[in-house]
Amino acid sequence: MKKTKLALAVALSAGLLAGCDFDVGPDSGSDGGGSEGGGSTPTSAVVGPLWNFEDASGASTQAIGLPNVYVFDGTNLKYYDDDATPNVYEIKVTPYTDDAEAGEITFTYYDEAGTGSEVSGTYTVDNGVLTVDTASEGVLIGADDTSNADIKAAVDAANADAGFNNYVQIIDTLDTDTGELRLKLSDIDLDPITSGKLTVDLVYQEDEDSIGDANSKNAYISFYASGTSTINMHGEIALEAGKIKYRDNNKALVEIVGSYEEGEELKIEANWDDGVFNFKVNDVEHSYAPNEIPENAPVEIIAIRLGDNGSTNNYEVLADNLEVYSNDSGSETLVFNDNFDGYAVGTVLNSSPYNNNSSEAVVVGDTPVEPADPVDPVDPPEEGDVTDDFESYTAGTLISDASSDWKTYNILDDEFGTTTAEVSNAKSNGGTQSLFLEDKNTDNKPFATRAFAAESAAGSVSIDAYFPSTNTKSTYINVGVGKNNSDRYFELNQSGTQLKYEAGDSDVKISDIVQDQWYTVTLAWTAEGKFTVSLDGQVIASDIDQASTGLTTTNIPTQLTLYTGDNGSNVNTAYFDNLASDLF
């Protein structure tokens, strides 16, 4: 992405129609949303709220400071305490397990002295109260303090200080559906809103990693009354190629005076009432004429959408800090908000609180704090236990010629250009030499692979990597059974300033990086197919389920594969050094 993870936040992903009718019935139930990108497994009721176990009434019993709160994100528990400095939270991160169907949970509970211990028990969530019946601590009762402005502000500040910032990425790579984040008010027990307001932070830009067709389609923020057809809209904002538009009662998209830059962070606000719809995109404002509103009725569904049902595109919508207000009680009241920091990176937003017709809306962002006890990790190689530092070879030699332990593929010098995977003395991390991969061929890309001593259902591999800022395409590190896409078991993808893992239509970002410097990248996996990824010894992602990546689960790793570039460009290079593992 051109825009690094906004310090703002937009939390919607609504699959939009570029100028088409979208007549699919009153609930759009046939639009197919939610069928891709990870299924529609319901989110556990413990995920998201700020749970306060100190006082189930929701009011802190502390004379000084704020109550300590727990946030479950689907993978890790974040514990916020202000014991050191009143009103200033510090964060502890630990993994937890939650069987939502059985109503059983295991997590770290902190006593009054701040000592953490693992507790297990059955749980229920009812009317904003979490009750956990444990053997060791008795019955724990937690109140949902999300509506406490002081607690929420302190949590947000702690997240910002720690570098936590999640948001939603919406893409459109399905020719059967739009990309969409849909919020249906009745799904979260809210009445239709006659007079209301929405605010959201949003970026609309080309997605350099997209597998969609190279075309720009509109992004939309849509407000529906009695159905999800264009004739049911109370209003709609559309963005395309720097132009700002709105949908009128003739189903037409009408351009207004004003513009935006692709990749620009946009502050968007929309207001509606009986006979009223107006909006702002940064400083650009527009109001509907009363007779332009397609359906002048209370709003029941809000959607952030991208693209259309008949094609794909290579753009993305990034959204954060979604807020919905109602004035129906006589005063402006916040009735829904989401900054997406309460979800684990990679969460597919097609279940509560969002509607199951959402499609290709996935939580991305930053979670830099290392879990105190990663789930079932495999110990990385001991420091100094290096399998290959490339120092014993002659610079300029193809690595497969220098060592029979290595194999290379697609090493070319033809009419399309050159590729190589050779020993280099241009850069190194601790010595004088490294492994250099270069893709200067517009028809192919180079591979270097090294086989394990045996099939490895569990293991760990560490390698130093240097990603130049001159690259325009990705560099990859994977374990699997061969070099082909179908041979991969787990794959990391470095693209620009992001490190991701392969996950089908939408790769999952797990860290921001700085180009033109060395990183030690470690992949560790268990026999249960759970992966942990570390950078420079710091865990950046844990408990990644291999089965969720879309790669073949039977490709039990037999080798490490490195490659860079693609089959169309000729600009990529990458350096690797200090390969370490006991698997070789």
UniProtKB/TrEMBL annotation:
Residues 1-18 form the signal peptide. InterPro entries: ConA-like_dom_sf. Keywords: Signal. PROSITE patterns: PROKAR_LIPOPROTEIN. Residues 27-46, 368-388 are annotated as: Disordered. Residues 379-388 have a biased composition (Acidic residues). Residues 30-40 have a biased composition (Gly residues). The keyword Signal applies. This is Dystroglycan-type cadherin-like domain-containing protein. The lineage of its organism: Bacteria, Pseudomonadati, Pseudomonadota, Gammaproteobacteria, Vibrionales.
